[in-house]
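Summary for the lay section of the report: proteins are chains of building blocks that fold into shapes. Here we show the chain for ABM domain-containing protein and then a coded description of the shape we predicted for it.
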Amino acid sequence: MVLATMQNTKGKPKVALWDGLLPVSVVPPAPTPGGWREIEADGKAMLDGEVYVAMNRFSVLPGMESGFEQRFASRESTLASRDGFQGFLLLRRDGAPDDGFTHSTLSVWRDKAAFEAWRGSEDRAGKPKPGGGGGAGGADGEGGPPKGPPQMFAKPPEPSFYEGILVLESARGI
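The coded shape description reads as follows.
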């Protein structure tokens, strides 16, 4: 197993740092007395998952970063009203990415079912903020058909999903 890992690893691990933008969070339930949960761990049975994390990594073309971030900033989020939602962050890579991904979304849910319910809903994209312009797209200014959003991505987004156990969170949420 160690030999296989050495053959597949391309150098030492690289740190990827991110700036958290546009946080959306719900206040978590009151902490348990003493601040710690009582966990029964016998070393054999798996602990139950406490959260479901959905991430989507984006490779935004150079010069399009501000427009990409504005698409999120100009939308009125409905996430906090969704059952099972716990938090969201738009992440911007701090420094040059070695894997091509400049941005990521991170959303935390009570469980996969809550995430899937939101994903299947009609309000998942949010609505334009009042007076916010609605983000990319719109008329071309000459009475023509609406323009679509500009080409922003070097490659399609890549989703990834995780189940978290033994969650630590602040009193303010994410």
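Put simply, here is one thing we learned. The mean pLDDT is 83.
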